[in-house]
Records
---
Amino acid sequence: MKRKRQSIHKATSHLHNPITQTQIFTNSISQLTLFIFLSLSLTPLSLSSSSSSSLPKKPPPLPILPLPSAPQLQWQLGHMAMFLHFGPNTFTDSEWGTGHVDPSAFNPTKLNATQWVKVAKDSGFSRVILTAKHHDGFCLWPTEYTNYSVSSSPWRNGGGDVVGELAMAARDAGIGLGLYLSPWDRHEPFYGKTLEYNEFYMGQMTELLTRYGEMKEVWLDGAKGKGEKDMEYFFDSWFSLIHQLQPGAVIFSDAGPDTRWVGDEAGVAGSTCWSLFNRSDAKIGDTDYQYSSGGDPYGHDWVPAECDVSIRPGWFWHSSELPKSARTLLDLYYKSAGRNCLLLLNVPPNSSGLISAEDIQVLQEFSELRRSIFSHNLAINALINASCTRGGSSHSWFNPYNVVKEGIQSYWAPEVNQSNWILYLNLQEIVSFNILQVQEPIQMGQRVIEFHLEVLNEDGEWNEVINGTTIGYQRLLQFPTVKSQYLRFVIDKARADPLISYLGIYMDEFSILSNLSNTTSQAGINGSQVLHGHIESNHSQISAI
């Protein structure tokens, strides 16, 4: 059952830019007729009007801390990255190598890094991340710190460099490159000796970050098998070195400092997912999965979550395994990139050194599904109004029509000191849809705590379709198909005056939505964690522009 909301007269009576003639006739016409009249009277604000140009520009609202760095912002805008697990495990049908496999096992006779990059780019991935060294300690570049590398393999007669070939292919294609350097090393004799191994690890890291051009991401974790040697990693020293050598790279780990593990390897984020996080409350290798999944509305650090998952059951290629279906990948996309995270999808090259044809086919179908659903915003031609607008309705800098402009640089901003934050949309015709997309301008901080979407039914009553918690860079919500011409998007709670950069509605004809109910919340955050009503900004936590 859809929950009915208040009547149209009650919904519009508090508008901060009332239409006087409409109010005069409120009692003499039906509620539905009134809404139609209101909607038709809402015309786009002209950016070049004389009244607008003669008024001084209203400055943007103050950002609310914490804020993303430039590399973090670029990372988030990428929304998907491709993981490439490759090494001796590919040839030995293993997941965690022992570190004692003979280097002669590694011989990908058809290796083509250009093919890997093309598949990634054609499928919409913004960067590729290679396992330069996995837990077995085998290095995919000719390191000077161990002989356990491609230099000791028959591939390219010992003269090959997988990292180098991938770096060149990524640079030529114009997509980002990232590398995974496993802290756990089952081959290196120094492992278990704190000083010696940290020196060894930083030496290898320096090679990777100084030989191959610009890096967009450095990936490491606390994975280690039971019963292995105790080892203290000098993470702070590692992070400082990485930021020194590659200031444009983000560092991923269980606890940041730049991006965090979401807490599972299923590619699923919490339905409440803050980019806010307290790094002091997290420890690499000892993850609080619930905290990692949801983030922290009171966090002092900006550490958005990354959702890693493999297209196949294993992380390395195995001849006996098949890839997930395109529809499964679409569902993962909704639950990762659609929950304010980056989707890191592992697509492992096979023993020939190529991405398998069946994986490519699935990725092509996945791309087509996304294109079919999201290529056209059904609200693009809507007449839009807001409960209030920063600087007044005569100012165009923050007007509600910004929410149908792609990108996060422009946005709708409400007037200050208001408690009603509503966007009204007249689609100008009855439209069927089952997907809501919302984005915040995260360069101004993550603000929205709770929101909901309503549609006007034929009886002139508002029905709630879906509600959710947290938006961040992007929120995608699915619900059973509804039909309506009139929508209102309501922000119920926020950390500061909410800002909305994009609002879209779409029709997904491919996903199975029978298990969803439009009367159930999207797993809202606990009441003890939210700030109720309008929250006054604490200027001690707000950055200056």
Note: DSSP finds 13 helices and 17 strands in the chain.
---
Amino acid sequence: MVAATATAMATAASPLLNGTRIPARLRHRGLSVRCAAVAGGAAEAPASTGARLSADCVVVGGGISGLCTAQALATRHGVGDVLVTEARARPGGNITTVERPEEGYLWEEGPNSFQPSDPVLTMAVDSGLKDDLVFGDPNAPRFVLWEGKLRPVPSKPADLPFFDLMSIPGKLRAGLGALGIRPPPPGREESVEEFVRRNLGAEVFERLIEPFCSGVYAGDPSKLSMKAAFGKVWRLEETGGSIIGGTIKTIQERSKNPKPPRDARLPKPKGQTVASFRKGLAMLPNAITSSLGSKVKLSWKLTSITKSDDKGYVLEYETPEGVVSVQAKSVIMTIPSYVASNILRPLSSDAADALSRFYYPPVAAVTVSYPKEAIRKECLIDGELQGFGQLHPRSQGVETLGTIYSSSLFPNRAPDGRVLLLNYIGGATNTGIVSKTESELVEAVDRDLRKMLINSTAVDPLVLGVRVWPQAIPQFLVGHLDLLEAAKAALDRGGYDGLFLGGNYVAGVALGRCVEGAYESASQISDFLTKYAYK
């Protein structure tokens, strides 16, 4: 149960350094349409200064949430009249895949992978990427640093008696708490730390859940909301009286209400694993953009949105071809909440105020490569670096949040004889990374890795990329759901029917949740357009 709970709870610029070998301590380089998606978009007619277009729906934001919303409208609801607008010159949002084919490297500088749930697999198949899917080894271990040693995390119940990450008393405390022998809920919204310590004990929190919070949210579990950030686990206690009670009740309900037959087109992943694409995560937004064609407009900056006198909304854009006006029956904002706040303030100051209060801490993705012989022998399995990666509790004296073994996780990420490591550093408990140089970030990562994974005498790493995201991941803090509801309610009070909020601060921060949220948003938009047609 401890392993299952931890897995459920664990279910993100600067110029590159040009792949040069640099001593980490020495070198530094300065570094007519039915739906429109506002973040980068497309329209059928060519734009010109003063041009006016119309759409049933505009999707504001061409990140993964916006693109998948447009794709879902087309494939699930027959709404092909969609416009997606993106302020940047490329689609995909924070998804950033970089390739050096001449050197044999391919890496990610934003999110690294996704859990292959059926909605994500459906989106991939509908986008023509079924044959490009790649899956990690479900048996590959995950590690947590504890007391100077990388210790495997239990992946199945049979592992529980043997893993050394927790003591026997800690395991007993977790088991009893999961059964319901623990203090009752306090009658208020709990943080992740409060919920886990109360239900499963200190060891589960400090050695499993705290590092997972760092890895998933780059967040502070003493401030993250259990209900908002890990709602599925929170609901187990809420509905069943305890974590195990809720699990049993969920299984019983599923047996009474079986799911419809699974789409036969979808591949069947083996076990609990993660997935990507042959040429990286960017294949998905690129494929959707190609499918939508001229409905995706890049380098379109939304400057204002107003309520139309004739129902719907008018959106004004600055584009490479000049000012463009779009008349839309519905709009979904999939851009970050702080951007949406500024745009929506003229419509509703209450909604804008609520949206402005979501917090996005900075995170840096540092990608380095070492020769295989640089890995400590005790970290090798059958002579190879195997596993998903490692997480580092804040109490263990390292600055890096975690390290993904990119070259072990998916094929063709690094040349023979090299290992590729993606490291995340920063987050809510270390916002000072924004003032560090690229070389200082690399040095911090290299210093940490030499404490547990890399030989202390190994050569300096080959630095492939350092990407700093100043506002990286929205934090689902205590009160998050109340703020989100306040923003939606303010729009409702203002009479802004057909204006929807979407994106990762609404659906969840994991890539899979963004896709699932896109399907949910598409259903809401389709329902609205159906009602709109009869008004």
Note: The longest strand covers residues 322-333.
---
Amino acid sequence: MANFDHDDAPPNSAAPPPPASSDALGYDPNFVPDSVKSFVVHLYRHIREKNVYEIHQMYETSFQTLSERLFKDTPWPSVDAVAHYVDNDHVFCLLYREMWFRHLYARLSPTLKQRIDSWDNYCSLFQVVLHGVVNMQLPNQWLWDMVDEFVYQFQSFCQYRAKMKNKTEQEIALLTQFDQAWNVYGVLNFLQALVEKSMIVQILEQEKEGLEQFTSTDGYDYNGGSNVLKVLGYFSMVGLLRVHCLLGDYHTGLKCLQPIDISQQGVYTSVIGSHITTIYHYGFANLMLRRYVEAIREFNKILLYIYKTKQYHQKSPQYEQILKKNEQMYALLAICLSLCPQVKLVEETVNSQLREKYGEKMIRMQRYDDEAFAIYDELFSYACPKFITPSAPSFEEPLVNYNQDAYRLQLKLFLYEVKQQQLLSGVRTFLKVYSTISLGKLANYMEVDEPTLRTILMTYKHKTHAVDGDGKIISNADLDFYIDDDMIHVVESRPAKRYGDYFLRQIVKLEGVINDVDRIKLE
């Protein structure tokens, strides 16, 4: 239901949505239409009965339909207006407000007070889950959306707070008064507490030994228990990866995700938004840590999956976000393959889509001139996460905007890495041609002296190797070399040719032709 990575509108986009004030478009927070009354009563009943299927239908379909029909430009009725229809149930009211704020963020522009109120609601909701007795079963989709929206609203708040230039005195007073709202430590502490209290890391460990069931039941509890804490803890690991990526701390982000084996299907793949968010951030973190092969492998898998399944999500409210993330991951794959030309790791279907979208740009990116840097800049800026500065602003005059600072720093670090690869493309071109070549001859070709060439070759070795999550040194190179008595010996890994893909595509084409022929009625 929630968008799994809303982005701030670009500077020149259409007018922003109207602020969500109570008098906007004659909105009365206390008026509850009959259809909403029926919705909350039924949802409350299904939650009490642990009827996950019906909760999912109401959450995914009914809530969307009512929002589209009755609340396109206004918030839903206030929680106080609906509370007496649900026995003033404290937990249900927290869940309702969580949905209320999510709808507000998606359709309108929240005020600062509403951003702070949403933080308070998340605090109350997570406190109940962590320290209360929660006896509910909720759909994975809803539990994922909670974690996803929590991180999104944190990101949105940091971006909002960093635009200090046009803040009113009232806004500055509120920011000073509620300086703990959406505090980075508070956000990280909640996510970490959910991981620890749920004991999800131990559960996943025990599952490997056959002592627990979690993945096989998609996290649901069929013995009358609750799935809420366990599944929130599980998705919080993905939330932590995302927060650390937004902060530019890629090592820690990947460490937080380690308990989830992403080489296998898991609960993270049971929700399309979670699946895409996990792999997008996992791939991006590996790209920034120079683990290009790992990034290429995972981008290839998820892009192939989206290619095969996207038609099933056309009616989903997340469809636009799926397509956007799909495009961003193709851009990241283009960057990875330009820095580490391991095309053999990419399926034919994904490769042909990539060539269609970025084939021409990828050829230009190999040149390492100003135009190539401009393309790297363009693709990175389009595909990177919306980085944030988590620290509180300076309230001293003159007030300045600093919402772009974190992005500029990450872009600078990335382009610095690209620049260092500039010399290496020349070395690689020559090494591809020779199986053995003397240092003197290669230095001559490259128009450098031998000591400089040795430095370049050492740089090549360094830049084509990285340290993986287990501390082992891994190679990203499609060719390797060693030097013996001033002779360079090149070792190229030759991929085994795969004929299967080709034949499968031809069989599908042939079946299409046969079907077309069968439809022709002969006179």
Note: The chain has two domains: 109-417, 423-523.
---
Amino acid sequence: MAAPKPEEISHPPMDQLQGLEYCIDSNPSWGESIALGFQHYILSLGTAVMIPSFLVPFMGGTDGDKVRVVQTLLFIQGINTLLQTLFGTRLPTVIGGSYAFMVPIISIIHDSSLTSIQDDHVRFLNTMRAVQGALIVASSIQIILGYSQIWAICSRFFSPLGMVPVISLVGFGLFDRGFPVVGRCVEIGIPMLILFVVFSQYLKNFHARQLPVLERFALLISITVIWAYAHLLTASGAYRHRPDITQVNCRTDKANLISSAPWIKIPYPLQWGAPTFDAGHAFGMMAAVLVSLIESTGAYKAASRLASATIPPAHVLSRGIGWQGIGILLNGLFGTLTGSTVSIENVGLLGSTRVGSRRVIQISAGFMIFFSMLGKFGALFASIPFTIFAAAYCVLFGLVASVGLSFLQFTNMNSMRNLFITGVALFLGLSVPEYFREYTLKAFHGPAHTNAGWFNDFLNTIFSSSPTVALIVAVFLDNTLEYRDSARDRGMPWWVKFRAFKGDSRNEEFYTLPFNLNRFFPPS
């Protein structure tokens, strides 16, 4: 038997991911684009509903307040997505709410000056205004780092090797939002997970009118079937005598969103009153803004692969971060109770559907804005049990993580140096945040617990983020361990051409601003 040739053993590295039906600047038909946009909108509801549902009751808010916050978050989510896809990185990314802001926001909620307020509604409004003020001030971090191109300069220290743990942990680091949540209601979570995998992978070659319907709309079909099944279980009284925690996670009528939602409500700036400003709150929130910046950097690079585009050049990445800062400023002005970051689940859906079209994401932004103003209709979709979304996250977060691992193809993984950096960064990126989470659950405060609340919030927020810990470890090791003689092993010969806009001719096709705006903002 003849020995296999080298090209039969390994696969050559590829700048752009193959196998996608539509890339960033190619579009499906209008009908298909609208349906895919609606699917992205439905997926974005998970985080948009979960964050206010968790925080508003702690603030003294009612179900009506919760609905208004969800509507406002969806409204700003749509605006930020449009801004990012038009003027930011121009990648097909949904800009949604972020869990990174939870630590400083919970700290504000527990501030003694706010908890001492007896009237629940007044306490809710005062807490909301305090969060708004902190977000407005903290947004300046991303605005300055982005538009001054400081983040572009920082990104010159990144390499494919250093980015592998960061991008991978953008997905893997969210493992606690996956099966641990599915396990809270296995009778709807497990069927959803199985159905989604079967439709998107095993039956993906099923065509109707030359369209791979089951692959393209696997998420939408699965959610519809399991949502109807969950409603049937609810209506039949299957959960009538079950514990409250089970009912919250399984029933379709426990969110109280539809009954509390107005028919029409248009969010507007300062709708909760004038924001209040506190230096300690703002400083703690700045840590969340930095975490959001790092997580989004990894997500943008993953999205570029799943949209079959080149890696965004440094100035395009920095431009996107600047617009994301504007987005956080809008979060503060309108009062969304969280800041903005790239929606990881929607990035994963690009790969699941094999459609990386920018137009699809812009249509989904239109759905967000439209249904945020039509309260009852938006609340109907938002009442989908979160367990159903968690089942989809098990697939979509894993897909994004594997995109991060795909960057290893540009590095030399026969190098002990590279193995050390990758392994240590991945392990610490998972282990350190898990320690911070476990500690907080047991002690009801983070490991950083001094008299300076802002300092506690800063450290607890930074080290609770897997991609942030991975970036600190991987970039430090990659730029200090034998870095002079390891440029090729790190993947720098491939990476360097994407640093500048003119380094690759394809960048102009993917990242040029619309309306001929490059005349006024020439790329560097």
Note: The first strand starts at residue 95 and ends at 97.
